[in-house]
């Protein structure tokens, strides 16, 4: 495995839309997986960040907090395998804290949606780290903690999983981004 260069929409200002930039996606480390995006949902949270409704968020950042994907590479100690179909959760459960025991992992106090579990980012633009926004599904390749990737059957059409899961969850879906086989 090696780092990879991809084009991804990077949000650098709350007054301008994200612009496509060449970024480096780092290798997955222990307990992490890299996935190739097939479809990403555009939800109200990402639009709110882009519009500057949360001006305290660190920039630059890659938005996107849900998607349907195929595992591309795995770090040491992972049960998922390359080729597994997954959907991503932006708020995985640690299965230990009070909020996770109450099935409310989005309220975990020890999790940051901007960094990996070790406090670093797997994205960079030049020498500058680029922050995660949950799973950063607007990038054609993403690295996430393995517990953010939920294995699904390969019989489910990945370009439809996001729309269906959002409707079932009652979330407001604003659109779906579909990626080509080459990640563009």
Automatic annotation (TrEMBL):
Every copy of the Alcohol dehydrogenase-like N-terminal domain together lies at 30-152
UniProt entry keywords in alphabetical sequence: Metal-binding, NAD, Zinc
Any Gene Ontology biological process: formaldehyde catabolic process
Q: Which family does it belong to?
A: Belongs to the zinc-containing alcohol dehydrogenase family.
Q: Which InterPro entries did the record assign?
A: ADH-like_N, GroES-like_sf
Q: What is this protein called?
A: Alcohol dehydrogenase catalytic domain-containing protein
- What is the residue range of the signal peptide feature? none
Example GO CC term: the record gives: cytosol
The organism is Phytoactinopolyspora alkaliphila
Which SUPFAM superfamilies does the record match to this protein? GroES-like (SSF50129)
């Amino acid at each position: 495995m090696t780092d990879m260069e991809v084009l991804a929409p990077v949000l650098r200002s709350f007054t301008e839309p994200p612009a496509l930039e060449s970024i480096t996606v780092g290798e997955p480390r222990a307990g992490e997986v890299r996935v190739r995006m097939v479809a990403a949902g555009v939800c109200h949270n990402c639009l709110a960040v882009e519009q500057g409704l949360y001006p305290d968020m660190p920039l630059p950042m890659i938005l996107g907090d849900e998607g349907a994907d195929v595992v591309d590479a795995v770090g040491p100690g992972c049960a998922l395998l390359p080729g597994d179909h997954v959907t991503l959760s932006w708020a995985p459960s640690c299965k230990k804290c009070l909020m996770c025991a109450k099935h409310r992992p989005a309220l975990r106090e020890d999790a940051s949606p901007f960094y990996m579990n070790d406090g670093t980012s797997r994205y960079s633009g030049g020498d500058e780290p680029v922050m995660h926004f949950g799973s950063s599904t607007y990038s054609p390749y993403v690295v996430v903690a393995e517990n953010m990737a939920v294995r699904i059957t390969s019989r489910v059409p990945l370009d439809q999983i996001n729309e269906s899961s959002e409707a079932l969850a009652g979330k407001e879906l604003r659109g779906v981004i579909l990626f080509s086989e080459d990640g563009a």
